[in-house]
Amino acid sequence: MNILEIIAKKRDKKELSKEEINYFVTNYTNGNIADYQASALIMAIYINGMSKEEITNLTLAMAYSGEVLDLSEFGIVVDKHSTGGIGDKVTLILAPIIASLGIPIAKMSGRGLGYTGGTIDKIESIPGYQTNIDIKTFKENVKKLGVSLIGQTLNLAPADKKIYALRDATATTESIPLISSSIMSKKIAAGANKIVLDVTCGSGAFMKKLDDAVKLAETMKNIGKLAEKETVCVITSMEEPLGEAVGNSLEVIEAIDALNGKMKEDVKQVVLTLGAYMIKLAGKGEDIEENKQKMLEQIQTGKALAKFKELVQNQNGDISYIDNPNLFKKAKYILPVVSDKTGYIKKLDAKMVGEISVALGAGRIKKEDKIDEAVGIILKKKIGDKVKVGDILGYIHANDYTKGKCAVSDLVDCYEISSELVQKPQCILKEM
Ligand code: URA
Q1: Is the dihedral of CA 290, 286, 254, 133 positive or negative?
Q2: CATH of range 330-418; options 3.40.50.620, 3.90.1170.30, 3.40.50.1000, 3.30.70.120
């Protein structure tokens, strides 16, 4: 067996055997297969797809490419993951709320992928916060505080780490076999027994249509079943960005506001729905609506915010930034974006907003690019809102004036304004 035969087989739309998939994953992880060969195979998978059996074999090979954590000492551990979006600060809000209810959270999050942001890039904008910690400390944190949030820097699913970075740089992100194996391999390796997945759908998501989002959800639920990890999927709308802020520290500030009781309605619906299922899977409440109330109480009593501070402090982050978000370094230019029309916002293209944010420096174009934590976009008007000529649609936070000016005119193009009344879009599209 060699990699050329495997690439050719997938190129010719044939099914790969378990041995061939294992060969690729093992040898790519240990450096015996070059990036250009792996890219060719990944592109062939992207174009020709994979059978259910191939997806399962790929997921398991990736999950077992490194260590697989045993978290049984913590009882039921529920994990959460999103298939990616714009302005998605959900984990930063949800993890402390759920941990404050006594449900352990041991979460390995990702960095930005394509035009979507990543929780790890966001939380690293809190000075000092360590995302790169060893497995022993990770487990000790969960034991001590009930929560730890880390990056994919441990020896957990190292094959995914390499393939994820490669996909980011080869336009192979929007693929059901590649997304489902990437997410489920990490979830299996990280050791949770139950999984809640936020499957995003719409312009700013990798799945643009509901049918495809349902297919992705079904694929991941099937892997969960085979791996004996009960999996619930919530399909959420990513037609427009989630909440108000897009960009790393801007989103952390929005998450702190949310934990202080000022949560935007769309963010609230997504956070509460995902969290209510996490509580249910943890065996701490059967009734979804009651679970949402329990979560709101954790915010009102300040317990969720206190847990977030404990999490940050325990991972070396400077909690004075949480007490006073004004400390976050601001971008040099804050440029208003003004409406030149009167009417109702009909469309706010999430993917374009994500691309503007990457162009400002909030995401990467090459694997080695450094993130600019301060830049991004604040959206003051969202779908369904009324606007008049001269109203502020949003603000661009830029450190480069030319890029900032460009972003201002690009953001105007993200909006479609209609003279007819537009309903606020539904945030939760399906629960399965
Ligand atoms: N999140 C992941 O971890 N992997 C993907 O492929 C997409 C989103």
Answers
A1: positive
A2: 3.90.1170.30
Q: How many angstroms separate the CA atoms of 110 and 101, rounded?
A: 24
Q: Tell me: domain 3-49, CATH 1.20.970.10, correct?
A: yes
Residue 131: predicted pLDDT: 92
Q: Domain limits of the chain? A: 3-49, 72-323, 330-418
Q: What is the pLDDT of residue 113?
A: 77
81 given a catalytic annotation:
yes
> Among residues of the chain, what percentage have pLDDT more than 70?
100
Of the CA atoms within 13 Å of residue 269, those in its CB half-sphere come to: 17
Q: Cβ atoms within 10 A of the Cβ of 260, count?
A: 14
Contacts of 2 (CB under 8 A, 6+ apart): none
C-alpha of residue 274 to centroid of ligand 1, in Å: 17
Per-residue pLDDT tens for 364-398? 877 678 899 999 999 999 999 999 999 999 999 99
Please state the atom number of ligand 1 nearest to the C-alpha of residue 110: 3
Res 364: pLDDT: 82
Nearest-atom number in ligand 1 for the CA of 167 is 6
Per annotation, catalytic residue among 81, 89, 111, 162: 81
| Domain at 72-323: CATH code | 3.40.1030.10
Sheet containing 415-418: order of strands? 386-387, 343-348, 415-418
- Residue with CA closest to ligand 1 atom 3: 183
Q: Which protein residue has the closest C-alpha to ligand 1 atom 1?
A: 83
For ligand 1, the distance from its centroid to the CA atom of residue 82, given in whole angstroms, is 7
Is 160 an annotated catalytic residue?
yes
Q: Whose CA is closest to 360, among 317, 397, 415, 391?
A: 397
Write out residues in the chain with pLDDT < 50, as ranges: none
Q: What is the pLDDT of residue 112?
A: 80
- Which protein residues are within 6 Å of ligand 1, measured from CB? 83-84, 110, 113, 164, 178-179, 182-183, 186
Q: What is the pLDDT of residue 291?
A: 98
> What distance in angstroms lies between residue 158's CA and the mean position of ligand 1's atoms?
14
How many Å apart are CA 312 and CA 127, to the nearest integer? 10
Amino acid 230: pLDDT: 96
- What is the Å distance from ligand 1's center to 344 Cα? 34
Whether 323 is catalytic is no
Residue 228's pLDDT is what? 92
Residue 181 annotated among the catalytic residues of the structure: no
